[in-house]
């Protein structure tokens, strides 16, 4: 399947989301080593302007979305959710949508696509709440007894106890807790270190590729590139969504694709 970890890092006051980029087939064979599973959600709310139309932008905010499981049903959910959130209208004195409101829309859409496809997945919506400006994480997992996604808010996710999506949760949680307890590194980011180690060692056949990283800093979520050792000496490759920034992405006209990076 995959593995994604979401947690709040007290050291840098950042909400992190880190996952692998491998997609597999039903035989656990790799379909792609560069499959994105963490995405931005653009939220826009419009109110009436001087023209009388809803053309005055009241809110623009970027949240995070992540999934594990079937790619088709999850990406249908994400595509519909991201498009819908960019076209919201209301009156100026109405309260802005909360993270819970956004998560409930994801719940409705996810249920629709799951029922149609019967292809299982789980997802998370996270970031800085438009209504309260607080960092929040919501986890959505299929509830077979109610035939809908179960929605729960996670009040606290730490580097020692992150939200995990995907496969091998007990083993990965144990590895994260063990490394975090050692506290031998200045920049903790323990889940990221554990996932990088799992990918590098090839510990699980359904977890691989490279790291995909997203962060919420302040009020905005954004994707980051990752400096990945090449394995052939001191050289490193900058990867973004599992793609090499230099060779796979490169230039777009006169401009270069250059997302903010981390190690």
State the separation between the terminal residues, measured CA to CA: 24 Å
Can you summarize the main beta sheet?
8 strands, mixed
SSE string, helix = H, strand = E?
EEEEEEHEHEEEEHHEEEEHEEE
**Structural class based on helices, strands and sheet pairing:** alpha+beta
Shape designation: globular
- Number of beta-strand segments: 18
Assembly type:
single chain
Fourth-level CATH superfamily: Aminohydrolase, N-terminal nucleophile (Ntn) domain
Instruction: Please identify, by name, the CATH architecture.
Output: 4-Layer Sandwich
CATH hierarchy, class: Alpha Beta
- Roughly what fraction of the amino acids lie in strands? 35-45%
- Helix-residue proportion: 10-25%
**What is the CATH topology assignment?**
Glutamine Phosphoribosylpyrophosphate, subunit 1, domain 1
- Rg, Å, rounded: 19 Å
Name the poorly predicted regions.
none
Q: How many distinct folded domains?
A: 1
Rounded mean pLDDT score: 91
Q: Tally the helices: what do you get?
A: 5
């Amino acid at each position: 399947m995959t593995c994604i970890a979401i947690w709040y890092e007290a050291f840098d006051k950042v909400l992190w989301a880190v996952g692998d980029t491998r997609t597999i087939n039903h035989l656990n064979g790799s379909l792609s080593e560069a499959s994105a599973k963490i995405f931005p959600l653009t939220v826009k709310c419009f109110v009436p302007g001087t023209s009388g139309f809803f053309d005055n932008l009241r809110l623009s905010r970027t949240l995070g979305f992540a999934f594990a499981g079937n790619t088709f049903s999850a990406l249908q959910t994400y595509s519909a959710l991201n498009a819908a959130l960019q076209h919201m209208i209301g009156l100026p004195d109405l309260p802005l949508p909360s993270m819970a409101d956004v998560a409930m829309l994801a719940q409705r859409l996810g249920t629709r696509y799951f029922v149609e496809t019967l292809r299982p997945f789980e997802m998370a919506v996270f970031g800085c709440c438009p209504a309260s400006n607080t960092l929040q994480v919501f986890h959505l997992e299929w509830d077979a007894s109610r035939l809908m996604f179960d929605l729960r808010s996670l009040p606290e996710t730490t580097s020692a106890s992150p939200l995990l999506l995907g496969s091998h949760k007990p083993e990965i949680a144990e590895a994260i807790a063990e490394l975090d307890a050692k506290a031998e590194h200045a920049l903790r980011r323990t889940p990221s270190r554990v996932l990088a180690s799992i990918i590098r060692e090839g510990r699980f056949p359904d977890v691989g590729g490279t790291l995909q990283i997203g962060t919420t800093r302040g009020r905005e979520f954004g994707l980051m590139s990752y400096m990945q050792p090449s394995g052939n000496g001191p050289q490193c490759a900058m990867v973004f969504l599992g793609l090499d920034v230099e060779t796979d992405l490169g230039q777009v006209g006169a401009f270069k694709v250059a997302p903010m990076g981390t190690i």
